[in-house]
Amino acid sequence: MGEQQRVEIIKLLYRDVELLILDEPTAMLTQQETEYFFEVLRKLRADGHSVIIITHRIPEIMNITDRVTVLRDGCNVVTAKTSEITEQELSQYMIGRQLHSIQREPIVSDAGNEGLVLEDVSLKENGRERLDLPSLRIASGEIVCVAGVDGNGQKELVEVILGIRKQSSGTIKLDGVDMSSLSVLKRKKLGIGYISDDRQQDGLVMDMNLTDNILLKTHTDKRFIKRGLINDRLVWEDTQKAVEEYAIKTPDLKTPLRYLSGGNQQKLILAREMAGDPKAIVAHQPTRGLDIGATEFVQQQLLQRRAKGCCILLISADLEEVLLLSDRIAVIYKGRFMGVFPNTKDLNLSHMGLMMAGRTPDVREESL
């Protein structure tokens, strides 16, 4: 997806357009690629081109724009010169309140829980090696982030863990149970929650309503089945509870998902996948395309699950999110780990960005 986005940008530049409208243009770019892209935009501005950028990333707004307009619920909240507004003011305008401070507590691991363990997992498709990972272990109460530019094996890693793709070699265990040969449904019953990177494509059925989308995971749950049939009343009550707990804004439970905002769609996925206290959560780009308010909510939910002893695999290209949530960070490039950072203290972002692009200085390899 990142390569596709860059091709679209190149097409616009070659057409020598007078006005560029860019919707989240840096969502899938590394830090270095973003900086280079901004240099291109500054040159276009100097040549007399006009540029409109739609983004929710406040540092980018402050870095590249001359004027900023904040929209909330379809209304123009404020328009101002960027030099005359602060980041804190921008965030308040965007979500209508102050952001809460997110704190990451020390790891509290359950010695009796082995967590999620991958050993010598590889994946070969059509004669091409997609993954080659010697080991990956995520302890209970730990968030391990796999950071990298989209298209470097993250999707394959996630789908191998979920059972959507069959690994070519290696074993996958959850809390000591080998699930390498189990189906997707059986793996989820063992206690895996999954937040997809594309909620509209494979996380939700957009023409179905809230209760039906909740049922995508719970349709085999005996709590909701009586005499072989799904009890609609119990499902409705469970969905209503989820709507209240996760503050999902919807006219009613029968509203098709396509009419909800991206943030509310993501909240429904969280409510569904975090139900029943899962042992492990695979979160693939969980805040992609969300505003800062919805992003904050998702991040807090992940940290709350971490505090309850859940092991979390986070896949994210957002370096700020990586630093905020992760206990350890592994950088992936073309299906292999380029290096592992045992903590986020004194982390060199430029160094990490180079690793994400496959250009690696001497880095001490550490076992995951």
Fill in the keyword field for this structure.
368 residues, alpha/beta, Rossmann fold, 2 domains, four-stranded antiparallel β-sheet, 16 strands
Overall description:
This protein has 368 residues and is α/β, with parallel strands linked by helices. It has two domains: 2-95, Rossmann fold, CATH 3.40.50; 116-356, P-loop containing nucleotide triphosphate hydrolases (Rossmann fold, 3-Layer(aba) Sandwich), CATH 3.40.50. The protein is 36% helix and 24% strand. It is built from 13 helices and 16 strands. It has a six-stranded mixed β-sheet, with helices on both faces. Strands 6-5-8-9 form a four-stranded antiparallel β-sheet, covered by helices on one side. A hairpin with a 2-residue loop joins β3 and β4 (75-81). α8 crosses α9, α8 runs parallel beside α10 and α10 runs parallel beside α11. It is globular. It starts with a helix and ends in a 12-residue tail after the last helix. Mean pLDDT is 85; it is low at 363-367.
Query: Do you know the CATH topology of the largest domain?
Result: Rossmann fold
End-to-end span in angstroms?
27 Å
Quick one: CATH class of the largest domain? Alpha Beta
Provide the β-strand percentage band.
15-25%
Indicate the overall shape: globular
**How many domain regions?**
2
CATH evolutionary superfamily of the largest domain: P-loop containing nucleotide triphosphate hydrolases
Task: Report the major sheet.
Answer: 6 strands, mixed
Tell me the CATH architecture of the largest domain: 3-Layer(aba) Sandwich
Biggest sheet, spatial arrangement of strands = 10-13-14-7-15-16
Q: Assign the structural class, choosing from mainly alpha, mainly beta, alpha/beta, alpha+beta, or little secondary structure.
A: alpha/beta
How many H/I helical runs? 13
